[in-house]
Structures are given as C-alpha cells and as structure tokens.
Amino acid sequence: MIPLIVPDWPATANLVAYTTTRQGGVSQGPYSSFNLSHAVGDDPPAVRENRQRLLQHIELPGEWIELAQVHGTRCVVLDGQPLTDRRADGAYSRTPGCVCSVLTADCLPLLLCSKAGDEVAAVHAGWRGLAAGIIEATLEHFQSATTQLLVWLGPAIGPQAFAVDEQVRAAFLANHPEASVAFVDQAAGYWADLYQLARQRLQAAGIPTQQITGGHCCTFNEGERFFSYRRDGVTGRMASVISFKSSTDYQET
Question: Cβ atoms within 10 A of the Cβ of 27, count?
C-alpha cells in the first residue's frame, strides 16, 4: 500500500493529482522508504523500484517528466515533445497525457488546474523561487482567467519550524511589503510561513481565496510521513504530480 495525499479541491474528474509521502517504498537509511529522487545519493535500483511501485499504484496518463530544480523562476511547457532543458521549477501543460511533477522535502509544492480541467501545472517553491516570482511565472502560461483556477498547497515546512534570517525576510518585503505578516520574530531571526506567503501571491494574482486549498502539513515536524531536508540533511524526496486525460480517454475509462 502506497499512501498518497489527494488535493481537497473541486477539480474535474479527468484530473490525476496527488503528493506522495515517505512511506511505501524500499529505500533504506535516511532515504527510508519511498524516496523518488535519483539526485540525493540513494541507491538507484531502490529509486527505480519505488517509481515502478508508484506507476503500478496510480495509472498516469503519460510519461513522468522530472525537472532539474534550481530554485529559480523558469516554468517549462510540456506539450508531448522532448524537453531539451529540464532546469526549471515549474511545469505547465494543456496537452492531455503530459505529466507535470516536482520533488520536495520542505519546499512548497503547488498543484494548479483550470476549473475546466484542461490546463495543469506543478510548482516547486522554495523561499528563493517564491520570492523571485515562480508562481507568477507559472500563471503567465494559463489561458484561463485566474478567477477560473484552483490551487492546492502540498506538504511543506510549517510556520513554527521554518527559521529564517533578515535576508530572507527582506527578499520578500522588497516588492511585497504585505509579506511582513508572514514573519514572526524569534530569538535568532524569524519564523516564516511559506503557506501564507504563497497565498498572498496567488490572491494578488486574482485567484479567489476559496479556490486555494491545502497548506496544513509540516514536513519538519511530521517525520513519520514526510522527508525534511532541514530536519535531516541527507534525505529523500516526495513527488507532487498532476495531469489530465482527454475527454475521450476519460469516457473510455
């Protein structure tokens, strides 16, 4: 059994969307047990087995494209053609069967879709990418109005665990002074609320508050469920995945 977290949003039934946990795989040691990343030092056969288990558990409508995440603002468009440069922190598609995914272990994963179910995106938002505008860069690709989008905030480090310094706070306040409410003073700096910072950006872009869900987990404090880089250093990664089937494919299933 592979535990999956399914977004609590009113999306159309042709969507496939979920986030994995750290449970259900074969990886050992700090990667125990369901690590899905080949880039963190885990045993490659174990990662391949974990991925195979995931594909057997949830039938994706197409190939899983893994990004080379760099904490930037580039969002690639997946249209079924080979992706020559995978250095990006967002993936968008309006092509049925293309799978958008990001890997995280404290950074915030966002899954986005149109209410019509014909546009999707996955975003990796660490504090650098979030402050620099990865959400806004991804939203630029959507043809639907922002009022017609749904967003789910996946598991990330929570507001009582994410300690940051003045440099991080200043990066957000430079162009968005309203972000100050997402930082709480603590002895060595601030506690930062990634979920609140993301909601602010989404709402400023025109997405109604009631269409933004999720944001209730803490990867740092929920060690049995989630990998956490801040907590463990050497650790695995969870996957957040979204795709959609064409109306024809959906009717056939």
Answer: 22
Collapsing DSSP to helix, strand or coil, 243 comes out as strand
Rg (CA), the chain: 17
Q: In the block, which residue shows the tokens 């957040």?
A: 240
What is the tens place of the pLDDT at every residue in 170-229?
A: 999 999 999 999 999 998 899 999 999 999 999 999 999 999 999 999 999 999 999 999
Give pTM, 2 decimals.
0.96
The domain made up of 4-157+199-252 is a member of CATH 3.60.140.10: yes
Alpha-carbon distance of 157 to 84, in angstroms, equals 31
Instruction: Work out the number of other CB atoms within 10 angstroms of the CB of residue 45.
Output: 10
Q: Is 252 exposed, middle or buried (0-12, 13-18, 19+ CB in 10 A)?
A: exposed
Predicted pLDDT of residue 247: 63
Helix spans in 66-190 (H): 127-132, 134-139, 166-173
Identity of the amino acid at 48: R
Displacement of CA 49 from its chain's centroid (Å):
22
Tokens at residue 110, please? 């966002």
Percent share of the chain, pLDDT over 90 = 91
> Any idea how long the chain is?
253
Helices H, strands E: what count in the chain? 7, 13
Candidates 203, 163, 204; CA nearest to 186 is 163
Taking a C-beta distance cutoff of 8 angstroms, is the pair 154, 19 a contact? yes
Cα dihedral 84, 67, 65, 196 sign: negative
